[in-house]
Amino acid sequence: MLTDSPGLPSDFSLYGGAETVSPPHTLRRTKVADSNAPEPARVPLDSNDFLWLMTEEPHRSRRAAILKAHPEVTKLMGHEPLTKYIVGAVIAIQLTTLWVLRRSHPLSFPFLLAAYAIGGTANHNLFLAIHEITHNLAFKGIAANKWLAIFANLPIGIPYAATFKKYHIDHHKQLGEDGVDTDLPTSLELALLRNVAGKAFFCTFQILFYALRPGFVKSQRITSWHLKNVLVQLLFDYLIVTYIGYQALAYLVFSSFFAGSLHPCAGHFIAEHYLWDGLEQETYSYYGPLNLLAYNVGYHNEHHDFPSIPWTRLPRLKAIAPEFYDTLPSHPSWPLVIWNFIFDPAAGLHARVKRLSAEMRHSSAARKGDVGSAMSTHGSETEEILLSKSETGSSRSLSPATDFDDTAPRDKEE
Fold first, then answer.
1. Domain boundaries, given as residue ranges, for the chain
2. Per residue, what are the HEC states of 297-362?
3. 171: pLDDT confidence band, cut at 50, 70 and 90?
């Protein structure tokens, strides 16, 4: 009987109808920098479902608190000129490597090793360059950022930069909302990939899940930037095959696959928002050396709190506000995250926070006749202004006058 199992709760009336819960953790998978931080409360997770919460996502309130305590963090916002040079250098590395391998068989050991070690690392760096550029943090202007994202997309082999932008901004604005945040695994994935073999399959092919899932969860309006992205990528691929050979294009595609597979850097996909150690904390940071290859994406709590602060200044944000970040559990290792995700029975696709989307909340409230709950509720003024700045490329000073920055140039074709 479940209630007689060692370590499991005896009062299941406290768990909302769940009949299975993960055993309490005896081994911490995360660490806390501040040794004096209080031990957070832990809750068992139902391995048959996600953790559904009615609370708002944590970054809005922490952003407001940090701005109140440290208003100087606004000086960290703005574009980072270094990004475009790194993008150019990484593309040069990929072009040099594919030229060297142009006569190698795609299934030979040297070819696959280079595609994993060099190409996988380089293309993962470009994934995260596009992530950075998506927040308009490479240039002040919108169009320049979009073109750089298309340029950074070239060695990836498959056009996705334009599509990624809209999905990623939704991920920030509506973190954890079912049917909106396409970073969330679906119920079908949860049902099919529950055991060790399933989780290993997910980690091996996670780049395909991230590429294909959004199209099934939420469609996107095609814009001229989507067409530019596709046409430029197809032209680049055609020139590569025509003048260098199919092996060169195979190298780029293999590089992209390895970049999102069992690669040390790919641990960040799982580390960022999966639940660990029985905590309800839905965003985790990582402060280790792999950040040097990944645009400091490990500073993920910091990034979600302030998406208008570029990668080079996220460590400075953490240093300015240690009382907010040193008390949060963080991951010591990305490769270890992949290992624990696969083999820890308490970890898995179920360990994600989900919330009803605004549409579902309003629909539910309307059915119940709850007019108050059906009314639209906006996020804090600060959050909307900061996200608006990130989307529009506006660098003018923040103004708390309205929820939306109406005077800044709007990005009409996201």
1. 15-26+39-392
2. CCCHHHHHHCCCCCHHHHHHHHHHCHHHHCCCCEECCHHHHHHHHHHCCCCCCCCCEEECCHHHHH
3. very high
